[in-house]
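Structure first, sequence second, as always.
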């Protein structure tokens, strides 16, 4: 009865469409002999494509490969249609099963961008395309423009509001990112040392050298050069020490962080420097700050209370300077995201009718605020 229904369905569809594809639902768990009988019957009825799905993601690659091989060898009219594979990822084997199917005679892979699909998803188009592409025709070929893979992945992710996991192969944020010092050094010397795919081939401009506490001077120097800074050995060493301290506090260090680090070195000595900042704050606590400044080599310390730790810190600084400086604008933003992120503070102050700007960055928002205030004060000609 099942065979008769399948044949009737294909014949009906063929009357209404030029190309008919027939799905053998749950073929992954079907008995091969009966499956071959069904495939032969629907091809004879006019099916142009016969799809062999591993609907529940049950098969292992060798089982699924053997299933396709069995059909290629036991379906008499198999050359009259295209054998297609449609694999699910319930056990994490969708891509492997699809490639195994191709290796055994399948000529169509049904896949999705980013591996999206029912339950754990379907075969990932980008994975299959780049597995085939990396073999340079040894397995087979596709007509896919692989340079569109990454932008298409981003588009699908955005429109479907489904973020791509960072460690997703090919299109994940970390797919071409290197954070280990040895890996970074190897990639910088010869990309193929740790990359089997050129990121440009999938539409990514270049690999990422992720700066972490495990990164060495070579990676830091490379990134600084990318940002336009040619640093001599002594300057690089100074920035590297600061970089390590910051990297210990943050998971990774980004370009904005580096610009701040190098800015402190490149801009040279400033007249007013923050040497110590201690604050007390919290529910039912009176906000208080103790600030120590180094002004042209002389150290000054003051303590003050305020409406909050930042206000108290600013009042203490103004007590040290004994100048009428008015805060005009205060703006804080996170540079990227996460609780360990750097907080960037922009400040405008008024002194004798003239506006001065300052900014500071730190993982501690009170410190970044004070540094921004001091940065603005350093621009005032007293």
């Amino acid at each position: 009865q099942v065979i008769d229904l399948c044949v009737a369905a294909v014949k009906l569809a063929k009357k209404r469409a030029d190309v008919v594809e027939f799905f053998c639902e749950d073929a992954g768990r079907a008995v091969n002999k009966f499956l071959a009988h069904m495939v032969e019957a629907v091809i004879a009825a006019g099916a142009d494509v016969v799809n062999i799905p591993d609907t529940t993601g049950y098969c292992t690659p060798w089982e699924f490969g053997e299933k396709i091989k069995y059909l290629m060898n036991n379906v008499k009219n198999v050359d009259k249609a295209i054998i297609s594979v449609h694999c699910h990822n319930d056990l994490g084997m969708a891509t492997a099963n699809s490639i195994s199917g191709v290796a055994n005679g399948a000529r169509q892979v049904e896949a999705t961008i980013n591996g999206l699909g029912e339950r754990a998803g379907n075969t990932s188009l980008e994975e299959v395309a780049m597995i085939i592409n990396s073999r340079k025709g040894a397995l087979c070929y596709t007509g896919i423009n692989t340079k569109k893979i990454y932008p298409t992945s981003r588009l699908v992710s955005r429109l479907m509001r489904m973020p791509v996991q960072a460690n997703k192969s090919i299109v994940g944020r970390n797919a071409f990112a290197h954070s280990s010092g040895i890996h970074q050094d190897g990639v910088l010397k010869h990309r193929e040392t740790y990359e089997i795919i050129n990121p440009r081939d999938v539409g990514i401009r270049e690999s990422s050298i992720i700066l972490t506490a495990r990164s060495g001077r070579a990676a830091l120097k490379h990134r600084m050069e990318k940002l336009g800074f040619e640093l001599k050995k002594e300057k690089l060493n100074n920035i590297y020490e600061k970089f390590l301290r910051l990297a210990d506090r943050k998971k990774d260090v980004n370009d904005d962080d580096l610009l701040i680090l190098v800015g402190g070195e490149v801009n040279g000595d400033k007249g007013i420097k923050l040497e110590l900042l201690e604050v007390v704050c919290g529910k039912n606590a009176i906000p208080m700050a103790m600030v120590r400044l180094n002004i042209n080599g002389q150290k000054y310390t003051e303590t003050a209370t305020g409406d909050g730790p930042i206000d108290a810190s600013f009042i203490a600084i103004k007590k040290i300077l004994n100048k009428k400086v008015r805060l005009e604008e205060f703006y804080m933003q996170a540079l990227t995201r996460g609780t360990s992120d750097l907080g960037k503070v922009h400040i405008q102050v008024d002194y004798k009718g003239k506006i001065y700007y300052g900014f500071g960055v730190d993982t501690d928002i009170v410190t970044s605020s004070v540094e921004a205030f001091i940065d603005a004060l350093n621009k005032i000609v007293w």
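Margin note: Confidence is low (pLDDT under 50) at residues 264-268.
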